[in-house]
Amino acid sequence: MSTIKDQLQRIIKLQGIPKRIVSLVPSQTELLCDLGLEAAIVGITKFCVHPNHLLESKTSVGGTKQVHYDRIKALQPDIILCNKEENAKDMMAELERIAPVHCSDIYTLDDSLELIEMYGDIFQTIEASERIIKDIKKK
Asked: Is the whole-model pTM more than 0.90?
């Protein structure tokens, strides 16, 4: 078991590297794909349209503010990815009954870079996350 913190400084306990991911944040779903994790994504929101084939190949669990908890539970995720601004606060407690919830809180470029690094650590895609960070800093 590993212990990590999310961007709200909440402690999250994981049973190893998450293999089944539900992403409730469209931009983070796209990041997961950039990190080479598309196969591990099992659930997305109806707003996760990049890459555009995801809505055809992944289970839609609703929107960012209203999700179908039963669909999420049926997917048996190892982790659920949320965002402080995108997802309703009252959702967190219900989602935490299903799986560990990692919540991002992005206001600055540094926050974005921190999240990319966090995902590299959580999902063991460190090389890919470092490459993305390097490319962003270069631009």
From this structure: yes
Are 62 and 68 a contacting pair, CB within 8 Å? yes
Helix (H, G, I), strand (E, B) or coil at 104: strand
**Identity at 84, one-letter amino acid code:** K
Q: Tokens at residue 123, please?
A: 């999902």
pLDDT in 10s for each residue of the chain, 139 residues: 899 999 999 999 999 999 999 999 999 999 999 999 999 999 999 999 999 899 899 999 999 889 999 999 999 999 999 999 988 888 988 999 999 999 999 999 999 999 999 999 999 999 999 999 999 999 9
- Quick check: helix, strand or coil at residue 76? coil
Cα first-last separation, the chain: 37
Half-sphere exposure of 22 (CA within 13 A, CB side): 31
Q: Which residue has the tokens 């299903």?
A: 98
> Which amino acid, one-letter code, is at 58?
K
